[in-house]
Amino acid sequence: MTVPIATYRLQFRNGMTFDKAITLIDHWKALGISHLYASPIFAATDGSTHGYDVTDPNAFDAALGGREGFDRLSAALKAADLGLILDIVPNHMAASLENRWWRSVVEWGEQSPYAHYYDIDWSRPLTIAELGKSFDEALDDAEIEIRLDEAAGNLALGYYESNIPLHPSSYGAVLDGAPGTLGAKIAALAASASAQEDEAFHHTMQTLITGSSQTDRGALSAFLAGLPVERVKAAHEAQAFRLVHWKTAASDLSYRRFFEVAGLAGLRVEAPDVFDAAHRLVLELVKDGTVDGLRIDHVDGLADPEGYLKTLRAAVGPDVYLVVEKIIEEDERVPASWPIAGTTGYEFIAALAHLFTDSSQAKALDDAYAAFAGDTDYPSILTAAKQLMLDRNFEGEIKRLVALAGASVGETYDAKALEQALKALITAFPVYRTYGTRDALGADDRKILDGAAEEAAGMLSGESRKALDAIVVALSGATEGDAFEFRSRFQQVTGPIMAKAMEDTAFYRYHRLLALNEVGGNPAEEAMSIAHFHAAMQRRAAEQPHAITTTSTHDTKRGEDARARLYAISEAPDVWAKAVARWHAMNAGLIQTLADGPAPDPAVEWALYQALAGAWEGTSATPDAATLEAFKERFSAYVEKMLREAKERSDWSEVDETYEGAVQAFAAGLLSPDNKAFLGDFLKTVQPFAEAGLVNGLTQTLVKMTAPGVPDVYQGSERADFSLVDPDNRRMPDYEAMTTLLGKAEGFPFDAAARSSGQAKIGLTARLIAARRAHPALFQDGDYRALDVSGQGSGSVVAYARRLGETAAIVVAPCKVLTLLETGDLEHAFDAAQLSLPEDLAGRSYRNVLQGGSVAVGQTLALRELSGTPYILLITE
Question: What's the pTM?
């Protein structure tokens, strides 16, 4: 397998096209990256901002430049000797009429050749959750009519801008009594139509319609628009679909969706013909050498991830770089049988947090947060969020599981008992999912299931307790028929419930230290240590040495430099708590008292101050009014998402405009130029945390580039990334400014000005990638060894070595530096510290990669010998 040196993640759309990307190649070459790591580039819904709502996996998105634009980009990358890794989406496609496969399913139902492409329960009509009210109410309110869709060449149920195609078999009843001859001709044509030849049918329809006079078309359209309500209702009931209120999607959707998104329908790539159809273009690009690697989006959503990955590996060959998007929990392992390089690296972010979070003051931070926000308990918050998902947001999925369980457990149990048992089991699940297929569950998965069952048993009694045992038996053994489908659907449901409960609910309710509220992490974790980081890296070197190591993605909750800054709060919780108390008093006039409590409530207020502290890029001076206004717009979007994701006093499905308006007014008041007292105090307080964050950010960069794995530079983060959650983190970076900085970055400038401008980070990034290029085998396959540090300041140093054969690297970086910055000169803060080296690393000469020159190393290495910067990378000469 060809392993990249370093990748650069680029978000297409939002102004980024294939031709725009070509203009950035010189910048990437200057950075030294080996591969462009592209977000989805295939055809997506009109106006898509991310590309995961694919409408055609075998066509390049016209909005990005289409096939011609892609070919120009591909040729330019080849000329620059840069590889290409594509982000592909095998789990789902857009449930949109722009998707011709889905359109065929809507129109023809089970007769469609694509009906089996999606996870659809064909025991009932296909649900289309698009209406703002019930169908009958919309019909009575004249919002629904039958239309002649001239552009598509069919009859359709019209709802505002949507034209949902009718099954041709229903045309005759709809057109009965139509004036003139056009209606009769259409009915006759439809009578012989078939799903297998629907393109020819629609083409002939278009020809028939456009060949008719405007008078005839107008008369037919008027006839259709004037059909009695009962005939429109009868036509609707004759379809393979049902139009329903969008709010019923959580409880009554007839197809598997991506998470909670009704607009994304689950794809059945486990079926060989579906796999072939969905991967035709991707495989062509791999086989002709255009694409060197693939990132598999949401692999846990698939019915059989291992089977899919083995099929994909067989199709692309042994040399193609494959990584999967998967969140792994603390004690979880990526299955060794998966033929991949590893994950996309969320667990690496979680490990990094151990370097910067001060566990010795965890209780003080807990107490301060509880005193201000009220008594909070993260496990209880997560459990409540899971129960909300089970009872409301995934009600339909649970109904389906109950039905499948009833047909699979071999005994008769009351549906309520099965439901209670399933909910308890899913609530207790400690990971996203297990990976059983038709065989008996593997040992690792069985351990997970049994542990969850043991915890769930404590929540149950009587019949539901017995039902739990039966469910565990059904999920554990070899399966066929209904039992196999039950296991598959169960495994496809636990992941979305965990994700939506934790990442998109609990993370927005629990705000103690927002830096830890990150995908793959534990917001309440308190036992943080450098030793834990070393253990995680040793495990990474052994289990997935070629996985991606990332510090920012399009899905992280905040940019890597915002997170680096907020970690420092853990070092001075008393300072932060006193500041929050002052700010609360200063801004008391902005807090509104509503019937259900203050707006914002204390927990949200605490979160707003932290979010603001992380995202405020320049903290050394108060920005002008225009800058404040631009930031206010970004922050307002974050506030809206934060409140709705929390699902407490507002929600995406039930927006409380009064509450949201009050909190938005509070947030706007914080950023008002007239709020001088607060802004001055806020910036003064945040400045030391910001300075510590810049140091942390450089350490993140050094560690990411030298620890096991393939480092990824997320767009713009080579300089600094203080982004808020998406869509803020998908904005176009200022490439002109970054190119200028990179051009001026001779060596590794570390002074305060270079740190604050981003020149230190971009210079460090380029120099480290160059070191990886010079020693690819060392960083790809070298082992990982923790190094002992002693002496004053040793608790704020992380040190380790990478070694492969006779080649070795020694890495040293600062962490937890807030106090050091406040009390002295960081460049010399570690002069009293020294490393103890094992025999195979000692007694050798090393090249000082960051400062230049050579260093003779004995059994110990005094850091004062490398004065001038606390960042050290030594590689054997």
Answer: 0.96
